Amino acid sequence: MALLLTSPPPGLSEYSPLSARAGALSSIRRASAAAIGRALSDEKELLELEFPPLLERKTQFDDYSNVEILDANRDFAVLLANEPELRCGGEPGALWLCFADDGEAELAREAWPGRRYAEVTVTSIAAAVGAVGGDALRPFGAWVRRGEAEAAAAKAKLAPAPALQLVVQPGDGGPMEDWLNVELLYREGTPIVCLNGALDKVTSGYYSNFLNPKLAQCASRFYSRFEQAYFCKPIGSGRGWLFRVYPEPWQLYRQTREELVIVDTYEERPTLAACSERLRLP
Asked: Which regions span the lipid bilayer (predicted)?
């Protein structure tokens, strides 16, 4: 019996008009929530979601700003946090939505008011670390806003203990300390889902292991343990996409003008170099 594989989101091909991508992020959100639910049932505690957050508005070749990425990830995270698979049967507030900094957390509260969204504890990564008894690392110059940071941590301590922590875009576009603080946040028995944290860059040594030895050590002992619950990433200069939904095999798609064509599946995650090489073959 052939294994049924989840299909990539609609309109993924760069040859498709952007109008064909309507509903792509909703598709990703539903598939991600279901995958997270399955992974949590399998007692996976470190999960990654990786996909283009501007998928419905821009192609991989368009210009975009970090603010656009932050806003898109923020909105996706708030909606994902309201999927039933992420509530884990916990009391209101037991799902912690952790943004890169206190400013992003405040923007999320302002952009998504209402009782439905208030049932999630919205905070920052550093404040969450302080709330669970850790000592968050701060980038140089952060002492200027130390009072605000301490107030945010004190507020997080008043929330119910986390049953699940959804961490939004740590590090990528921000300070290296964000990635290091996610490890400080982790407590065995409390799962973490990392949303678009560019973990590929962390684990591949993209930021130079020589210049950032702390990050390299963190990647080896911590980020290498993450399971990709949902992964959708372009390969090569528009040649194809690598796709996976937990617990299914990895799928490699070639992009043509007419459609995406699956060329291979893998039980273990292939390297991006291996994918690029495979896409050069017939």
From this structure: none
Tokens 């372009």 — which residue? 234
Bridge partners, residue 240, by sequence: 235, 254
Residue 8 per-residue DSSP state: P
Per 3-state DSSP, what percentage of the chain is helix, strand, and coil (rounded to 5)?
A: 40, 20, 40
Q: What pLDDT does residue 207 have?
A: 77
Rounded CA gap, 207 and 79, in Å?
31
Residue closest to 248 by CA, chosen among 236, 265, 232 = 265
**Is-contact 33 85, C-beta < 8 A?**
yes
Q: Are 179 and 100 in contact (CB under 8 A)?
A: no
CA distance linking residue 281 with residue 183, whole number of Å: 40
Residue type present at position 228: Q
Helices (H), the chain: 24-41, 66-81, 102-111, 115-118, 125-131, 146-157, 177-185, 199-204, 213-221, 272-280
Structure tokens at 27: 């598709």
Torsion of CA 222, 122, 96, 178, to 10 degrees: 0
Q: Give this prediction's pTM.
A: 0.93
Instruction: Report yes or no: 134 and 93 within 8 Å, Cβ to Cβ.
Output: no
> 231-268: per-residue pLDDT in tens?
999 987 768 999 999 999 999 999 888 889 999 999 99
Strand bridging mode 121-124 / 164-168: unpaired
Q: Which residues of the chain have pLDDT under 50?
A: 1-2, 143-144
- With contact defined as beta carbons under 8 Å apart, do 12 and 24 qualify? yes
Give the residue carrying structure tokens 């921000």. 174
CA 248/CA 258 separation, integer angstroms: 25
